[in-house]
Structures are given as C-alpha cells and as structure tokens.
Design a protein that fits this description.
heterodimer; A: mainly beta; 4-stranded antiparallel sheet; 12 strands; B: 4-stranded antiparallel sheet
Chain lengths: 113, 112
C-alpha cells in the first residue's frame, strides 16, 4: 500500500527566506508524486507533479521539487517566500495507474513579515 | 472555463437529517472522488467512481452514500447515520493516469 508522510505539521519562515517542505513516500514501484496547495476555505490547487524524467521539476508560483529515489523523498522548495505563500501544502503519491492518490497530512506554512 | 463546481459552499443540517452535496464537472473526466477534511487530519477518502454507474467505498464510507448516473455529476449524501458530519467536503476529478486531481472549492457542512 502506498503512503505519504509530511513530518512537519507547521512551519514558519520569514518573508524572503528560502523554504523547504519535506515529503517522504512509500510505494513499491516508480510513483506518481504531486504537491498541492490549499488556501483557507478553498480547494486544493496542483503546484507540480513528477513521474519520470528530470528529477527536479518546476511548478507554478515559483515552486520546485526534487525526487530522490534513494531517500524516498519529494521535497518542495522555493528560494524566496512571499506572504501570499501562507497556506497548507499537501504531498500526494499516486498508484501505478495514476488514478488513486494518497495524501499526506499536510504542512501549514506561516510567513512572518 | 472547465472545472468542478461544488454547491452549496456552506450547508447547515439539523441532527437526524440527510443532506446532499452537489459536485458537477465539465472537464469530461471519468474518475471522481469525495474527500472529507477535518482540522489536522488531512484528506480522507469517502467514495470514488472510476466510471458511470460504478463507485467504490473509500476509507470512511460509513454514513455516506453516492450515485454516479451521469459522467458530469457525483453527488454525496450525508445520512443521519453519520455521527459526526461537521467537516469540509472536497470533490475531485481525474482525467487519466498521472495527470493529478482537479479539486472543487469545497462545501462546509455544519450540524446545528
């Protein structure tokens, strides 16, 4: 069975600082991996996804993520955080059919001015 | 523009009542999903449907029911058997493998 762990429930960073959100997954084969962002009271928006190819993927809003098979990780990064990035972030892993995602528990990002 | 529409945005229910949450998509996606979100608990899968007239229970299906009579629609009924229905409900759809889900904007259900 597939699973996802986001070790950090809350993270606070200063505006302009760099950001890294951690995601570890468990899956037997090459996984589909996703990062989503959720603003309060809203649905989830896809930031980026990975299945194959270059292990560093670029997404929307200046985010990127790196797939590391040896560490079973897919961490999300942003070089300079903006106040509007404050939200909850979810990592997800998909099965080999790509039609069933399992989500991590989420990381709530707060941005200090 | 294509997307998923969930309605209503806010819903209040008296104890003992059934309520139905609407989810409509015009993306021509085959698969649709319902999730429940509670503070600090992430997303939990209630039901999903990979094709019209077929659906499967997720991890927390007790107290809920669904139908999939049309490709575009996947309504969720929260029955009186659901003991703690107050939550944020999210509907999603998926076009094919690896594309990732598209989510609606959610319905917040409160029992009064």
């Amino acid at each position: 069975a597939q699973s996802v762990t986001q070790p950090d429930i809350h993270i606070t960073v200063s505006e302009g600082a760099s950001l890294e959100l951690r995601c570890n997954y468990s899956y037997g084969a090459t996984p589909y991996l996703f990062w989503y962002v959720q603003s309060p009271g809203q649905g989830l928006q896809l930031l980026l996804k990975y299945f194959s190819g270059d292990t560093l993927v670029q997404g929307i809003k200046g985010f990127e993520a790196e797939f590391k098979r040896s560490q079973s990780s897919f961490n999300l990064r942003k070089p300079s955080v903006h106040w509007s990035d404050a939200a909850e972030y979810f990592c997800a892993v998909g099965n080999n059919a790509g039609n069933m995602l399992t989500f991590g528990g989420g990381t709530r990002l707060m941005v200090k001015p | 523009d294509g997307g998923i529409t969930q309605s209503p945005k806010y819903l209040f229910r008296k104890e003992g009542q059934n309520v139905t949450l609407s989810c409509e998509q015009n993306l021509n996606h085959d698969a649709m999903y319902w999730y429940r979100q509670d503070p600090g608990q992430g997303l939990r899968l209630i039901y999903y449907s990979q094709i019209v007239n077929d659906f499967q229970k997720g991890d927390i299906a007790e107290g809920y029911s669904v139908s999939r009579e049309k490709k575009e629609s996947f309504p969720l009924t929260v029955t009186s058997a659901q003991k703690n229905p107050t939550a944020f409900y999210l509907c999603a759809s998926n076009p094919d493998r690896g594309a990732g889900y598209t989510f609606g904007s959610g319905t917040r259900l409160t029992v009064v």
